[in-house]
Amino acid sequence: MEAMHISTGYADTVRPRERILAAACELFYQHGIHVVSVDQVAEAAESNKMTLYRHFKSKDDLVAACMSEAAKEWHVFWREVEEAHCGDPKGQLVAWLEGVVDRKTNPEDRGCALANVAVQIPQPDHPARCVIEDTKWAMREKLVKLCEKAAFPHPEQFADEVYLLLEGAGICSQSTRTRNLSLRIVDIVKARMAEQEKQLGPT
Predict the structure, then answer these.
(1) Residue 94 burial by Cβ neighbours in a 10 Å radius (0-12, 13-18, 19+)
(2) What is the mean pLDDT of each run of 10 residues along the chain (203 residues)?
(3) How far apart are CA 146 and CA 179, in angstroms?
(4) Is the dihedral of CA 129, 64, 182, 198 positive or negative?
(5) N-term to C-term CA, the chain
(6) What's the DSSP call for residue 153?
(7) How far is C-alpha 60 from the geometric centre of its chain's CA atoms?
(8) Measured between alpha carbons, how far is 127 from 124 in angstroms, rounded to an integer?
(9) 47, 91, 123, 149: which has the highest count of C-beta atoms within 10 A?
């Protein structure tokens, strides 16, 4: 079995389920869910397959749990942006974009964990796909509400434009060597925000 690199040396206080989940999230993200076996996850987690199946009844459930962890990271990121720019929806939008772009231009970035797994799972009833779709829709709805709070003339349309730009940038950052293309997102959206503000007229 091919060895896969992953940081090990878990503290004694880290429970088996947490170790397994952490190992699976990293391995699935770096190598893909179909390439990584349950045995490899168990080995990386310094555990065994029996323990893994005690906490996750199937590999599909383990993948879904990893997607839930990815979703939590996005929700935490949103809260941090909201707290840092409380009462400033336009500031929140720009800060959120800058944060996303910062991730996409990181050489170690492998793209959006949610989108990566969605591409690998064609089954609409897969437990991980349900998590992915719910999270992606929640992200889109957050953008819509942010644009509504900013009082843009067409908030839903503008939110969809931003959302599609970000999703497209995620693909470009993985399929081309020019990660700096993602940096253009902030300038593009700022220009569109200025257009939206002109439509509002003087306040």
Answers:
(1) middle
(2) 49 82 96 96 95 96 97 93 94 90 79 92 93 94 94 92 86 68 81 81 60
(3) 27
(4) positive
(5) 66
(6) S
(7) 19
(8) 9
(9) 47
